[in-house]
């Protein structure tokens, strides 16, 4: 019995010892294995770094642009600093007076953090210098785009292998050349090229499309051809540059129901929208048709009243502020908005005096007051002759003066410069308390 | 005595008119201060408190006859106004109407009108001679010119009964600080092809502090853009002629082979480029000619599609787009949806514009078509019918 009790005790001791050993092992495990797992996990994390710029989809379905792991609202301007007397062929990237330094300083003071250029110049070193100067001196990032051959004569030949290969190579060369520039924010493919699928501008076709008798089906075939091509380029860019999102440039939301299937890999949609004081149902419509983040890549208002025939800075400021209010109301985690907007790019930083009559060099030294298109959304001057109220040479946030300063046409900030600066500092989304309409 | 007479004459010549002038403007001040409870447009022929005159005859003004002292069963007092609208299209307009103005014949070129701040509604009594007469709309304000009215409020269509009935135009929240067009009515030859006789009485502004602003109600489906020529279910007016509008002939009462009902729409586009635009189209708007300049339209949130029937005269006519919404301006449509190009068949064919996912809460432009010379070099004749939201 005693023995047995000893045995029992011994057994108990053994069990106790065994428990102790187990605890020791567990302790060892906790002390060595867990940190090891954590280390491996962290190393694993470290070996797959986050892209420099990426889109984060939140649990509520909203989208946020992240840059260097921080949220980034695009507060941008389209940038094309053509001096008075020159036209779009002028190579401003190589301008010895470096207009981007003067403009960059003003932009920074305003709160601009991004410029958009539609396509980089031919001298890549000059382009890099501009991107670096803006980023290093003012913290301003650059969005680079490519026209995707939209303006090629006689038309963009989407669906033609030779044409598509050549343009794709140009785009991939652009990406390879600039992807390591710290100032690059993202890529935009095309601008409003989708309008060519409707035949509204630069119409094109293929033999296969021409055989289709139904014009509605022709339109769909063109849209699928074009968007598939953009999707193909997007996949190629992702392979060589995982650090920057790729945006599909699009005029309005037209055709995006086909983009959903034809180019699902684009990271965001960059839309050109001219809808006056409101973007209407834009944010929700995109959510329904093609659930991608939205960058308002071109929007704005001109500062010339075509009806009363005089500059009207109030009108421009009124529209721009209203537009920014809507952009901010639809950013990620906005209370009442859709949450799919990542910011906007105003058209444009400075006036361009060559635009109205592009074929007459003598008019490039004069700021034309004529208009060649109409848009009822900009209703203050819609009663102008022929309803032509959009003054292409007056869209600048800053006006140009022939007076020279730093070897450049003097920049004169318009009222919108100050109004938007204040809005960005203190974004008030509710316009209650503000005067209805613009003040004169 | 002579001095007294001179003084008396002086008083009659200067003080009385001055007093009268002050009297005339007194109600305005009262209205502005919120003390006046009502402000009369018309009660009886020659009544002292009539403030507006039915002088603004519009459209086919030759089709209108007015007896402003009708004793045929007035609603109150001794007289009412009798309008006879013949719908003969004397001025080839297809519509007619009458504004009560102050001063008379003032189309915004003269200073006049009243500050009616504080008033919240306009009420009037009306009846038809037979019952069933339809006013396309009644109007408060909206006269434009050097001295423009500060508000335009429209309501309609209104189908009259053969007995007196009171109608109300809600004015809550409207800027009534300058109103020279106190009241008006409009009807069309389509709504009254055989003409009509109707009576109006006791038109006045009222201050009703309990009245709430009129919010647009969500319209029930189906909701017609066009059903038949004279249908009071037609909610939009084909007033927005675009591009080469001189190339278009429109007949909203075409009786040969309609798809349904008595009539359909016949459109002839001759493709001659009258205005040099090389394209043309028509927007159905509410109210007429509203390019986003005034608050109007309907809340069609319940609509998931718009359907319509169309056919070409020969078959093969190409319409570049059929559209819902998309009118821009200060009061812009809340969304838009488009189909096209559509090549029409010779037989009636139904087409659908999908509205799923669209914001249809504010639609001024109910329907639109547009085409151009390039795809119709010989022009195009086509027919539309049963245009409706579902």
Search tags:
heterodimer; A: 440 residues; alpha/beta; TIM Barrel; 2 domains; eight-stranded parallel β-barrel; three-stranded antiparallel beta sheet; 11 helices; B: 390 residues; mainly beta; Jelly Rolls; six-stranded antiparallel beta sheet; globular; disordered N terminus
What does this molecule look like?
- The complex is a heterodimer of chains A (about 450) and B (about 400).
- Chain A has eleven helices and 15 strands.
- Chain A is α/β, with parallel strands linked by helices.
- An eight-stranded parallel beta barrel of chain A has the order 4-5-6-7-8-9-10-13, surrounded by four helices. Chain A has a three-stranded antiparallel beta sheet with strand order 1-2-3, with no helix packed on it. In chain A, strands 11-12 form a two-stranded antiparallel sheet.
- In chain A, α4 runs parallel beside α7 (about 215-240) and α7 packs across α8 (about 255-260).
- Chain B has two domains: about 35-205, Sandwich (Jelly Rolls); about 225-390, Sandwich (Jelly Rolls).
- Chain B is built from one helix and 26 strands.
- Chain B has one helix at about 1-35, and strands at about 40, 55-60, 65-70, 80-85, 95-100, 120-130, 135, 135-140, 150-155, 160, 165-170, 180-190, 195-205, 225, 235-245, 250-255, 265-270, 280-285, 305-310, 320, 320-325, 335-340, 340-345, 350-355, 365-370, 380-390.
- In chain B, the strands form six sheets. In chain B, strands 1, 3, 4, 6, 11 and 13 form a six-stranded antiparallel beta sheet that branches.
- Residues about 1-35 of chain B have low confidence and may be disordered.
Explain the layout of strands and helices:
The complex is a heterodimer of chains A (440) and B (390).
Chain A: H1 2-47, E1 53-57, E2 63-67, E3 70-71, E4 74-78, H2 99-110, E5 114-117, H3 124-138, E6 141-146, H4 161-178, E7 184-189, H5 194-197, H6 207-211, H7 215-240, E8 246-251, H8 256-262, E9 268-272, H9 282-289, E10 294-299, E11 304-305, E12 310-311, H10 313-328, E13 341-346, E14 398-405, E15 408-413, H11 415-425
Chain B: H1 2-33, E1 38-42, E2 53-59, E3 64-70, E4 80-85, E5 95-101, E6 121-128, E7 134-135, E8 137-141, E9 152-155, E10 158-159, E11 165-170, E12 181-188, E13 196-206, E14 223-226, E15 237-243, E16 248-254, E17 264-269, E18 279-285, E19 305-312, E20 318-319, E21 321-325, E22 336-339, E23 342-343, E24 349-354, E25 365-372, E26 380-389
């Amino acid at each position: 019995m005693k023995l047995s009790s000893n045995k029992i005790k011994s057994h108990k001791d053994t069990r106790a010892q065994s428990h102790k050993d187990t605890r020791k092992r567990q302790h060892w495990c906790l002390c060595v294995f867990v940190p090891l797992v954590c280390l491996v996990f962290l190393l694993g994390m470290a070996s797959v770094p986050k892209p420099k710029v990426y889109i984060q989809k939140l649990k509520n379905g909203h989208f946020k642009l992240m840059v260097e792991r921080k949220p980034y609202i695009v507060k941008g301007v389209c940038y094309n600093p053509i001096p008075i007397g020159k036209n779009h062929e002028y190579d401003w990237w190589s301008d010895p007076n470096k207009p981007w330094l003067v403009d960059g300083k003003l932009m920074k003071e305003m709160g601009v953090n991004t410029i958009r250029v539609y396509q980089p110049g031919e001298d890549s070193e000059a382009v890099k210098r501009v991107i670096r100067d803006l980023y290093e001196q003012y913290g301003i990032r650059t969005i680079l785009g490519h026209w995707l051959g939209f303006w090629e004569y006689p038309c963009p030949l989407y669906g033609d292998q030779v044409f598509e290969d050549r343009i794709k190579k140009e785009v991939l060369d652009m990406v390879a050349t600039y992807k390591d520039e710290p100032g690059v924010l993202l890529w935009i493919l095309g601008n409003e090229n989708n309008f060519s699928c409707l035949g509204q501008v630069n119409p094109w076709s293929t033999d296969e499309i021409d055989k289709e008798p139904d014009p509605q089906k022709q339109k769909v075939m063109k849209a699928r051809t074009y968007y598939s091509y953009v999707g193909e380029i997007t996949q190629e860019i992702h392979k060589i540059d995982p650090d920057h999102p790729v945006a599909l440039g699009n005029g309005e939301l037209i055709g995006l129901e086909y983009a959903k299937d034809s180019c699902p890999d684009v990271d965001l949609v960059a839309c050109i929208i001219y809808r006056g004081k409101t973007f209407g149902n834009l944010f929700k419509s995109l959510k329904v048709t093609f659930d991608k983040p939205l960058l308002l890549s071109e929007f704005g208002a001109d500062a010339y009243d075509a009806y009363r025939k005089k500059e009207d800075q109030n009108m421009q400021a009124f529209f721009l502020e209203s537009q920014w209010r809507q952009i901010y109301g639809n950013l990620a985690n906005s209370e009442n908005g859709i949450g799919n907007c990542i910011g906007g790019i105003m058209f444009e930083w400075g006036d361009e005096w060559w635009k109205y009559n592009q074929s007459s060099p003598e008019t490039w030294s004069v700021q034309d007051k004529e208009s060649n298109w109409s848009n009822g959304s900009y209703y203050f001057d819609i009663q102008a002759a022929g309803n032509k109220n959009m003054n292409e040479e007056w869209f600048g946030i800053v006006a140009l003066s022939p007076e020279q300063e730093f070897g450049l046409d003097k920049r004169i900030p318009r009222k919108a410069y100050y109004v938007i600066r204040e809005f960005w500092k203190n974004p008030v989304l509710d316009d209650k308390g503000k005067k209805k309409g613009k003040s004169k | 005595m002579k001095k007294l007479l001179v003084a008396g004459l002086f008083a009659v010549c200067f003080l009385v008119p001055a007093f009268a002038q002050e009297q005339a403007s007194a109600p305005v001040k009262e209205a502005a201060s919120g003390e006046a409870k009502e402000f009369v447009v018309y009660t009886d022929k020659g009544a002292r408190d009539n403030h507006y005159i039915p002088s603004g005859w519009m459209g086919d003004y030759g089709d209108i006859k007015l007896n402003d002292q009708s004793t045929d069963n007035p609603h109150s007092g001794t007289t009412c106004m009798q309008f006879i609208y013949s719908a003969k299209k004397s001025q080839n307009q297809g519509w007619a109407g009458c504004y009560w103005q102050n001063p008379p014949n003032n189309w915004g070129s003269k200073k006049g009108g009243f500050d009616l701040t504080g008033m919240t509604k306009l009420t009037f009594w009306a009846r038809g001679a037979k019952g069933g007469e339809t006013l396309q709309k009644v109007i408060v304000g909206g006269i434009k010119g050097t001295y423009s009215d500060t508000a335009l409020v429209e309501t309609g269509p209104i189908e009259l009964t053969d007995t007196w009935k009171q109608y109300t135009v809600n004015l809550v929240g409207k800027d009534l600080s300058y109103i020279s067009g106190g009241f008006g009515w409009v009807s069309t030859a389509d709504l009254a092809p055989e003409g009509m006789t109707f009576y109006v009485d006791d038109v006045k502004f009222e201050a009703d502090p309990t009245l709430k602003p009129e919010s647009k109600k969500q319209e029930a489906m189906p909701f017609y853009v066009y059903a038949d020529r004279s249908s009071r279910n037609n909610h939009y007016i084909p007033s927005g002629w675009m591009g080469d509008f001189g190339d278009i002939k429109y007949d909203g009462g075409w009786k040969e082979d309609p798809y349904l009902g008595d009539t359909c729409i016949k459109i002839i586009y001759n493709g001659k480029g009258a205005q040099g635009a090389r394209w043309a189209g028509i927007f159905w708007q509410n109210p007429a000619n509203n390019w986003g300049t005034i608050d109007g339209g309907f809340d069609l949130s319940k609509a998931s599609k718009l359907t319509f029937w169309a056919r070409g005269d020969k078959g093969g006519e190409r319409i570049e787009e059929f559209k819902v919404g998309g009118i821009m301006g200060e009061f812009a449509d809340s969304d838009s949806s488009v189909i096209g190009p559509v090549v029409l068949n010779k037989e009636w064919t139904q087409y659908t514009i999908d509205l799923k996912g669209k914001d249809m809460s504010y639609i001024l432009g109910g329907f639109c078509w547009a085409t151009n010379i390039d795809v119709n070099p010989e022009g195009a004749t086509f027919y539309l019918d049963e245009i409706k939201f579902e």
